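Session log. Operator J.P. requested a structure for one protein chain; no other inputs attached. Running the standard single-chain path with token output.
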Amino acid sequence: MKREDFVFFDLRGKTKSTSIDLLFPGWKEGDERVIFFSPHDDDALLGAGYLLQAVPLFGGEVHVVVFCNGSGGYSIIEHKHIITALRARETVKAYERVGIPPERVHRLEYDDYSVWPFIGWKLPSGEGTVAKVIPLLRRLRATRVVLPNGHQEHLDHTAVFMIGAFDTPQVGDPVMADWGESAPVRSILQYAVWSDFSFEDALCGGDDLTMRANRALQAPYEVEERIQGAMREFQTQAKIVEGLLEARKERRLGEQKVLEVYLAFEPRPKCNYRKYVTRVLEIEKEGAV
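Structure written below.
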């Protein structure tokens, strides 16, 4: 497998490229550290598994941040009190299947279905996600962040999206100086695990509202085979995994290619005052009362 096997698409602009710049503008080969936020241990594999495998081919380093510990993922009663240890071991094996070593998988250990109450910094119960996420991203010298879809997937997915969308810009701000050296994250993407994205970008772009992703990655079928193998490492989730893998058949483009979609967005959009100045001047000129 080589980088030429991957093709990137701008679905809104209807263009394609063999350069990863189309997903990550201004890509700097040899100086990129892409951090994938995974609400649960398997989400980054399911939603962004092709990109996980593509990034190293383009000279980037991959890290995965797993927010939840799998405490709600037991399918049999006997696993209830040992499920987090089982899932941690399965996670290591799964990500090794796609070339990510254990030291690049970072676990934050929040309980399943419980990330939302920890959003923020100083909370009545102690410190929230800000105190974990910003220092971690600074230590890893993150240049890109890939987040889960924040639209109607799962409460933990929405929470992790919110954390990424609002905490990530703070990584580059000259604040909390004792939390590490600040440097801006260059761009952010969303990936979808099973639900479609928000229609907001399509609406603003004047596109078909069912065409909600604005970026896509075409990959060789080999990467899907690796994802299938990685997902089967989650033996504690065997019943669920088979259904998830069956649903992935619709990603196929013929026999030898598969597709993965993304939503590129700006987490801190600049307010351009010139358009408001222009509108006020027009009103003044017309003498409206």
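Operator note: The chain has one domain: 3-286.
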